[in-house]
Design a protein that fits this description.
By secondary structure, the chain is an all-alpha fold. The protein has 5 helices and no strands.
Length: about 140
């Protein structure tokens, strides 16, 4: 077994995902040490938004290198979402001084995408049953 596969089995992440995490943490530490944390946080959020838009653009393609790039960007945005959500909550805390509004924004950022995903899957499954088979109760 290759060493990359061993890392994937042990951590559940690929090597590039681990390197992305290390890079983000290094940028945040450098921003904190140089008193530029707000600018670094805003830059990371903008970078995530650009990556998300590119992912959505490349998801339209169903074959070829564009689809592979779309899949790569999808993995990257999925891996990075929680960190960016926490950075966005921290940036909001610099502007919002109401704890209730901050908690609601945090709940929307952290739980919102999961709830939307579950609701979309639930709508798709409700139409799966054929009309000629009745449901027994």
């Amino acid at each position: 077994m290759k060493w990359q596969q061993r890392i994937r089995v042990a951590t559940g992440l690929s090597c590039w995902q681990i390197m992305l995490h290390i890079l983000v943490v290094a940028l945040l530490v450098m921003g904190w040490m140089s008193q530029a944390m707000v600018r670094v946080g805003l830059g990371l959020c903008v970078l995530y938004a650009v990556t998300l838009v590119l992912m959505l653009a490349f998801q339209r393609y169903h074959a070829g290198w564009r689809r592979e790039l779309g899949d790569f960007l999808e993995e990257m945005t999925t891996t990075w979402y929680f960190g960016v959500a926490l950075i966005a909550i921290w940036l909001l805390s610099r502007v919002l001084h109401n704890n209730v509004l901050l908690a609601l924004a945090g709940l929307a950022l952290l739980a919102g995408p999961a709830l939307v995903s579950l609701l979309i899957k639930d709508k798709r499954r409700s139409g799966d049953l054929p009309a000629k088979h009745s449901i027994r109760r």
